[in-house]
Amino acid sequence: MSYKRHFSRFLESDPHRLHAAAHSHHPWPDVTFEAQQQAWLDAATLHDDKWDRVFGEVIPEAQRHIARRIGLPDPAATTFAPNTHELVKRIVSCLPAPARVLTTDAEFHSFARQLARWEEAGRVVAQRVASAPLDSFAQRFAEAAAGGGHDLVFVSHVLFDSGFVVDDLPALAAAVPDPATFFVVDAYHGFMAVPTDFSALADRAFYVAGGYKYAMAGEGVCFAACPPGYGARPTDTGWMAGFGELVSGPAGEVAYPADGGRFLGATFDVSGLYRFNAVQRWLDGLGIGVGEIHAHVVALQEQLLAGLDGILPTPDAQRRGHFLSFRTPDAKSIYDRLHAAGVVTDFRGDRLRIGLGLYHDDEDVKALVRHVADAAAAR
After folding, report:
1. What is the topology classification, in CATH, of domain 32-283?
2. pLDDT greater than 70 at residue 249
3. pTM of the predicted model as reported, rounded to 2 decimal places
């Protein structure tokens, strides 16, 4: 089955480009074009009153879509921001300083860089569990979590460098002995890629993700599902957390809503929310869920791996998300040759990453095998 016709605006903008970085800037389906226009039209026709529509219609719809995709019992537990970095900073602002943090050595640069800077400034004390070897990662992380003494436990659902799926999240959360410890799941490489039921953790863990990758909605539409009772009054806050009348608190104190809105910040471009909702409606109209997307991608991955057998090393992660991570000292040179040939991949250190998505079909994979084989042979 090919869905390429639904991505015609992106794909036809450069017919000679073969984009294989769905794990990075995922192409947007055509329905997002009209959604972007609608955001503009609402701003033009409603002016200041557009915020009533955003908070009264656009955000609640997006919350319902997210809740349905990951099994949240309460859509209102979800809040939005332009990026996950902003959301994580707001979550950490609820913790004492220096905050004691348990995490991994395989977190995305946004968190890894900020954590390192907080360490330099004396605001956190961090403990990092090595992701390798992957086979024992979950056990080793659970053991570290069981040691206790942490204010924050932060782990990715899908590790961004290897693509390894951490599918023991409930067990990892259960290993944390102090129920007051914040447990945060970075799900950016999991949301809309790996079928997820977060219902068992909805009252215990934060789920942080966004639309730039597999949700196919582009920049500026990130979100956090926020468990009740954790972080009632973030010190990093903005006017949107006080929007409307559903806020409470003692007289003389800054008031917050009890739902996910307590983690809202300040003014941001809401067009991403329009695009996100349009994508979700489009998928629903086609009868496509995350399971169907995942099955489509896995089939293409298997076809690609069969074609690259003996050309590139076997990927480290057998339980993986929607990109393949090939560890080779020639990662950069292969990437450069592919890029020069109009094939878009990426690399992280010694890992060449190839991401496939709903916009790919068998013919794309056949072409990709030829290009990678040529690039690898030129080493």
Report:
1. Aspartate Aminotransferase; domain 2 (3.40.640)
2. no
3. 0.96
